[in-house]
Amino acid sequence: MRHAPRLRAALLVCTALTLPAAPAQAQNLDAPLYLGQIVIGYAEDGTPIFAGENATHLGEQDLRGATSTTDLDGLLRQQTSVFTQKDPGNPGVSVNIRGFEGSGRVAMSVDGVPQTYRLSGHAAQGYVFVDENLLSGVDITRGPVTALGGSGFAGAADFRTLDVGDVLTGAANQGGMLRLEQTDNGHTSSGMAAAALRTNRFDLLFAASRHTGDDYADGDGAMVPDTYENISSQLFKAGYDLTESTRVTFSLMHYESDFFATSYGQELTNDIAKLGLRYAPGSALIDLRANLYTGKTETDWVSGTGAYVGRSLSTRTTGFDLTNTSQFDLGAWSLTSANGIELSQDRLGGTSGGVNPTTGKAKRAALFSENVFTQGKWEITAGLRANSYSLDGEASQGRIDVSDQSIDPKLTLAYQLTDWVQPYVTLSRGMRAPTLQETMLGGTHPGGGVGMIANPDLEPETEEGYEIGFNLSRDGLFTGGDRLTGRVNYYHMDVENYVTSQFVTNAWGQTGYAFVNVPGHSRTEGVEIELTYAHPEFDLGLSYTHNDSHLPSQMPGLGAGQYLPDDTLSLRLSRDFLADRLTLGAQYTYVSGGLFTDTYTTTPYQKDDGYELVDLFASYDLTENAVLYAKVTNVFDEVYAPWLSASASENGRGRTFHIGTTLRF
After folding, report:
1. Is the distance from CB of 564 to CB of 99 less than 8 angstroms?
2. Cα 577 from chain centroid (whole Å)
3. CA distances (Å), origin 341, targets 137, 142, 151, 294, 605
4. pLDDT above 90 (res 354)
5. SS3 readout for 11-47
6. Its pTM surpasses 0.90
């Protein structure tokens, strides 16, 4: 058990920070509205009260605040039941929730725009490409979502970009923001500049970001090849109030990067455009939001020694969504009801796709209704989502033209047992449509060998499960001014027709590797604990996950392994000094072993190579609008391969010193 000494070392550092100091001043922050979330009321100070859900909302302070010690991948890995597929050379983010990843099992989006770029290869089967410098938050929901953005049964992850309110301070009508960071390991430089303008009816935002860096070294000082960074991105947003009740918004995002992954040097771009409308005339029955969007992710294979130099793959997604939220009374019950429609289409493009199709269309449509009933101590959430999809394309032996539908309900019963404990139980069903890349797989592995074949009979995955737990919210737990919040729960998920790759004969008589439905039910279950304790003298955060997976293995080479570690633990402690201007803290992370699948094998085995990481951080408020921060990640130079890494030989980053600043003016 090598993790015990590191844990004690981290706790010793943390304990030193809890000596008496001046009490922290309370802050009053306006809570933002998140994708698919329902407001069921408002506190006396105007703060929205949201319906109960198993969700985590990461904001500015989590991403790059005083206690932020890691990159976006690392931050996501610290959340309960959340992990990422990690390819050190690929800047994309692939979110894994409860051991499910890729091909839309987790619905990933940027500002609510679905990110559906897929690639069948030696890594994740789906990435989000977004610059973390341009993010204001990440919203994670575990389990099926029946409201907007609910196309994946494992959960959803929406990456929110900066808005005008993130740049301007207070009541300022114009201003800017500057972020700079430098690290020694890999000599990475990162910078972002943003400017914003706000008038009575009009607001405008422009931001640009740049990342450059060399290969990093692991804990032994060995360079990890092809881990350099070269990313640039821009963001533009505009909003105009047509009337007091009608607002129009428009946004553009451009992202570009070059990197080396899966044996090739690649150049990638991701472009998103979105037009939004909100109509809220002041009636409790009408709060209408509509969005029209398009996005395109494209990759060119520009270097390497394989046969696919010159390959190009792209996915263009266009779509529309409409949601209305109403509030009214039904006798003694209060009801908040969100109802709407989602329509979207993916169109593939490219040349020399190999096993990946370069033509084809996938269409998705959904009608949804999510209703929150409240009376006294009771809160009942009843959701229903009607899904349909169709796939259309030309495979090697014939045309693919398939479609299917599903009706997916979700019910949550919650009861406020005491003023600080709310037990709940959730029953749910969700569907995940097969992708074009799964259905129309073809070609052979570069260099010859076993062929890959399409499956015109591939059926959707269907999940049924339940979750039982309790929410906590307690003021004055041990002393005046302290606060404990969080959730403890158990989940159980059964998936019918789980999709994985196997050597089969398809409906056209071809023999080879194809994506197929596994007969019967595939199960995973686990325990999630997410707690935050705020004391006048310090802040403590704890995240723990235990996962017990009985899912069939995803064969590396046609995707990547998806098994979570058996146990993960993240513990963070910080405290403020000098009238809250100085923050010092430490973070301890433990990742156990678990089920693992070697490259090109389908038989999982228990791999007990766990690891532990300790980080230290500090920040100082030079002025109200100028913050200087420093951090040391992997303090003990641990040599480790990150769990769910693209290759067990690609170690994580060794000890790294970071220094940076955020300025608003």
Report:
1. yes
2. 33
3. 25, 21, 12, 17, 43
4. no
5. HHHHHHCCCCCCCCCCCCCCCCCCCCCCEEEECCCCC
6. yes
